[in-house]
Amino acid sequence: MDKKYIVRLSREEREQLDALVKKGKAAAYKILHAHILLKTDVEGPAWADAPVAAAFGCHSRTVANVRQRLVEAGLEAALERQKRELPPRQRKLDGAAEARLIALSCSQPPEGRAGWTLQLLANELVALGIVAEISGQTVRRTLKKTL
Protein backbone atom coordinates (compact mmCIF):
# COMPACT_ATOMS: atom_id res chain seq x y z
CA MET A 1 0.00 0.00 0.00
CA ASP A 2 1.35 3.43 -0.93
CA LYS A 3 1.90 5.85 1.90
CA LYS A 4 -0.15 9.00 1.72
CA TYR A 5 2.13 11.00 4.03
CA ILE A 6 5.81 10.76 3.07
CA VAL A 7 8.44 11.80 5.61
CA ARG A 8 11.19 13.96 4.11
CA LEU A 9 13.43 15.40 6.79
CA SER A 10 15.89 18.19 6.15
CA ARG A 11 19.44 17.81 7.41
CA GLU A 12 18.71 20.21 10.30
CA GLU A 13 15.58 18.32 11.30
CA ARG A 14 17.44 15.01 11.20
CA GLU A 15 20.22 16.46 13.38
CA GLN A 16 17.65 17.84 15.83
CA LEU A 17 15.93 14.43 16.08
CA ASP A 18 19.26 12.62 16.44
CA ALA A 19 20.23 14.95 19.29
CA LEU A 20 16.87 14.38 20.97
CA VAL A 21 17.25 10.61 20.74
CA LYS A 22 20.89 10.51 21.83
CA LYS A 23 20.43 12.89 24.74
CA GLY A 24 17.42 10.95 26.05
CA LYS A 25 16.30 13.75 28.37
CA ALA A 26 12.84 14.29 26.87
CA ALA A 27 9.51 12.64 27.51
CA ALA A 28 9.35 9.03 26.38
CA TYR A 29 6.67 9.73 23.77
CA LYS A 30 8.83 12.49 22.22
CA ILE A 31 11.79 10.14 21.92
CA LEU A 32 9.50 7.47 20.42
CA HIS A 33 8.14 9.94 17.87
CA ALA A 34 11.68 11.05 17.01
CA HIS A 35 12.69 7.41 16.43
CA ILE A 36 9.64 6.89 14.23
CA LEU A 37 10.42 9.93 12.11
CA LEU A 38 14.07 8.97 11.71
CA LYS A 39 13.24 5.43 10.59
CA THR A 40 10.45 6.44 8.19
CA ASP A 41 12.49 9.20 6.50
CA VAL A 42 12.75 8.49 2.75
CA GLU A 43 16.24 10.01 2.73
CA GLY A 44 17.27 7.61 5.50
CA PRO A 45 16.30 4.00 6.24
CA ALA A 46 12.76 4.43 4.80
CA TRP A 47 11.24 1.63 6.84
CA ALA A 48 7.60 0.67 6.37
CA ASP A 49 5.13 1.24 9.20
CA ALA A 50 4.87 -2.36 10.40
CA PRO A 51 8.63 -2.89 11.00
CA VAL A 52 8.88 0.50 12.75
CA ALA A 53 5.94 -0.38 14.99
CA ALA A 54 7.46 -3.77 15.79
CA ALA A 55 10.90 -2.28 16.49
CA PHE A 56 9.62 0.33 18.93
CA GLY A 57 6.72 -1.57 20.48
CA CYS A 58 3.90 0.65 19.31
CA HIS A 59 0.92 0.28 16.99
CA SER A 60 1.32 0.85 13.26
CA ARG A 61 -1.46 3.44 13.53
CA THR A 62 0.80 5.45 15.86
CA VAL A 63 3.47 5.47 13.17
CA ALA A 64 0.96 6.62 10.56
CA ASN A 65 -0.39 9.35 12.85
CA VAL A 66 3.10 10.71 13.59
CA ARG A 67 3.91 10.78 9.87
CA GLN A 68 0.62 12.55 9.14
CA ARG A 69 1.20 15.21 11.83
CA LEU A 70 4.69 15.87 10.45
CA VAL A 71 3.40 16.46 6.93
CA GLU A 72 0.33 18.48 7.96
CA ALA A 73 1.58 20.49 10.94
CA GLY A 74 5.37 20.29 11.07
CA LEU A 75 8.08 18.78 13.21
CA GLU A 76 7.06 20.25 16.58
CA ALA A 77 3.48 19.00 16.20
CA ALA A 78 4.75 15.54 15.21
CA LEU A 79 6.85 15.31 18.37
CA GLU A 80 4.00 16.35 20.67
CA ARG A 81 0.89 14.41 21.58
CA GLN A 82 -2.30 15.21 19.75
CA LYS A 83 -4.46 17.65 21.70
CA ARG A 84 -8.15 17.05 22.34
CA GLU A 85 -10.54 19.47 20.72
CA LEU A 86 -13.29 18.86 23.26
CA PRO A 87 -13.20 17.59 26.83
CA PRO A 88 -14.32 13.98 27.33
CA ARG A 89 -17.51 15.16 29.08
CA GLN A 90 -19.47 18.37 29.12
CA ARG A 91 -19.39 20.34 32.37
CA LYS A 92 -22.43 19.99 34.61
CA LEU A 93 -22.12 23.53 35.96
CA ASP A 94 -21.43 26.52 33.76
CA GLY A 95 -20.54 29.95 35.14
CA ALA A 96 -24.11 30.93 35.99
CA ALA A 97 -24.83 27.60 37.68
CA GLU A 98 -21.58 27.85 39.67
CA ALA A 99 -22.63 31.31 40.85
CA ARG A 100 -26.01 29.94 41.95
CA LEU A 101 -24.25 27.10 43.80
CA ILE A 102 -21.97 29.51 45.66
CA ALA A 103 -24.89 31.77 46.55
CA LEU A 104 -26.84 28.74 47.75
CA SER A 105 -23.93 27.49 49.87
CA CYS A 106 -23.64 30.93 51.53
CA SER A 107 -27.37 31.12 52.28
CA GLN A 108 -29.22 29.79 55.30
CA PRO A 109 -29.37 25.97 55.42
CA PRO A 110 -32.75 24.20 55.38
CA GLU A 111 -34.80 24.19 58.54
CA GLY A 112 -33.56 21.69 61.07
CA ARG A 113 -30.00 21.74 59.70
CA ALA A 114 -26.96 23.49 61.13
CA GLY A 115 -25.25 23.81 57.74
CA TRP A 116 -25.25 22.70 54.15
CA THR A 117 -23.89 19.26 53.26
CA LEU A 118 -22.63 18.48 49.78
CA GLN A 119 -25.53 16.14 49.14
CA LEU A 120 -28.04 18.73 50.36
CA LEU A 121 -26.55 21.27 47.97
CA ALA A 122 -26.70 18.75 45.11
CA ASN A 123 -30.32 17.90 45.87
CA GLU A 124 -31.23 21.60 46.07
CA LEU A 125 -29.62 22.30 42.68
CA VAL A 126 -31.77 19.56 41.17
CA ALA A 127 -34.90 20.79 42.98
CA LEU A 128 -34.33 24.35 41.71
CA GLY A 129 -33.98 23.04 38.17
CA ILE A 130 -30.43 24.34 37.71
CA VAL A 131 -29.22 20.89 36.62
CA ALA A 132 -30.99 17.64 35.82
CA GLU A 133 -28.70 15.60 38.08
CA ILE A 134 -25.45 16.19 39.94
CA SER A 135 -23.38 14.34 42.51
CA GLY A 136 -22.10 15.63 45.79
CA GLN A 137 -18.54 15.16 44.55
CA THR A 138 -19.14 17.49 41.62
CA VAL A 139 -20.43 20.06 44.09
CA ARG A 140 -17.34 19.50 46.25
CA ARG A 141 -14.93 19.99 43.32
CA THR A 142 -16.74 23.14 42.24
CA LEU A 143 -16.73 24.66 45.71
CA LYS A 144 -13.10 23.71 46.29
CA LYS A 145 -12.15 25.37 43.02
CA THR A 146 -14.03 28.59 43.72
CA LEU A 147 -13.75 29.13 47.48
Outline of this structure?
This protein has helices spanning 11-23, 28-40, 49-56, 60-73, 75-79, 95-106, 118-127, 136-146.
Description of the structure:
The chain has 147 residues and is mainly α. The protein has 2 domains: 11-79; 95-146. The chain has 8 helices and no strands. The chain has helices spanning 11-23, 28-40, 49-56, 60-73, 75-79, 95-106, 118-127, 136-146. Helix 1 (11-23) packs across helix 2 (28-40), helix 2 (28-40) crosses helix 4 (60-73) and helix 3 crosses helix 4 (60-73). The longest helix has 14 residues, at 60-73. The chain starts with 10 loop residues before the first helix and ends with a helix.
Helices and strands, with pairings:
Blueprint: H1 11-23, H2 28-40, H3 49-56, H4 60-73, H5 75-79, H6 95-106, H7 118-127, H8 136-146
